[in-house]
Amino acid sequence: MSINTESDVTADLQIGPTSLGAVRLFVAAGGTEIPMDFTPEEAEEIAEELRVAAMAARKVKPARRS
Length: 66
Prior knowledge:
Layout: E1 12-17, E2 23-29, E3 32-38, H1 40-58
């Protein structure tokens, strides 16, 4: 599976600070839970990557489905 492959899998995403000063992304899907901890600096880099990807996605014209 790649970033451009569609899927019917659904997941829950939670984002918040931890008591140890990290930023946690917590993904739960199909009985699997994945906690991912980042430093505040890493979280800011991820946020910037999300902003850039959102700007690029706005420029994409979706293909028509028959």
